[in-house]
Specification:
Elements: H1 8-27, E1 45-52, E2 58-63, H2 71-84, E3 100-107, E4 111-112, E5 124-129, E6 132-136, H3 139-144, H4 148-158, E7 172-176, E8 178-182
Antiparallel strand pairs: 1-2, 1-3, 3-8, 4-7, 5-6, 5-7
Helix pairs in contact: 1-2
């Protein structure tokens, strides 16, 4: 289960698309078009994470778990939503944009998983139970130094479920991998 391999040009195009989508939205104008590699017109699944360059503080993270639109469109929409619709954070100001780092995670399809098969740093997780769902990207447990069980428990918390809910028979555990890359300059 590997995400589609993206070359340096495709990565740069996706990062440009994300930054333009955020900038255009905050400036109240339509986004300018960015030249695209043919592979970016294929349906894809992506999350966009925004952090402060200075300290890595999270400023927004939104994405899609189903491939229902071209990857370029999914990245543009996820970037716009991460900047303006992640209700955990105030939207950034136009002046704050140069201080934001954009990270894109291009995901593989979600597949049923067993807890004992989850590898920290390789798999991202989604849990569904009792009408709730929560997802954590593969890089999250690495950033926090979590082991597998802690990762599973935090995925439950993200869904609004108690820790250990992943052990219950009616819990659906799904895993995925991701190609993760970010920008290094504004």
């Amino acid at each position: 289960m590997k995400p589609p391999a993206l070359g340096p040009e495709e990565r740069a195009q996706l990062l440009a698309i994300a930054r333009e989508a955020i900038t255009a939205n905050l400036e109240g104008r339509p986004p300018r078009s960015v030249p695209l590699a043919p592979s970016l017109y294929e349906c894809g699944v992506a999350f966009v994470t925004l952090t402060q360059r200075s300290d890595g503080e999270l400023r927004g993270c939104i994405g899609y778990v189903e491939a229902v639109r071209p990857l370029a469109e999914a990245v543009a929409e996820a970037a716009r939503l991460a900047a303006t619709e992640d209700h955990r954070f105030e939207p950034p100001s136009r002046g704050e944009l140069p201080r934001l780092r954009i990270e894109i995670s291009v995901l593989t399809p979600l597949l049923p998983a067993r807890a004992e098969d989850v590898v920290v740093g390789v798999h991202g997780l989604m849990i569904r139970q009792a009408g709730r769902s929560g997802l954590l990207l593969p890089q999250v447990p690495v950033e926090h130094g979590w082991d597998r069980e802690t990762f599973l428990d935090h995925t439950c918390r993200k869904a609004g479920l108690p820790p250990g809910a992943w052990r219950l028979a009616d819990a659906e555990l799904l895993s995925f991998t991701a190609e993760v890359f970010g920008d290094s300059s504004p």
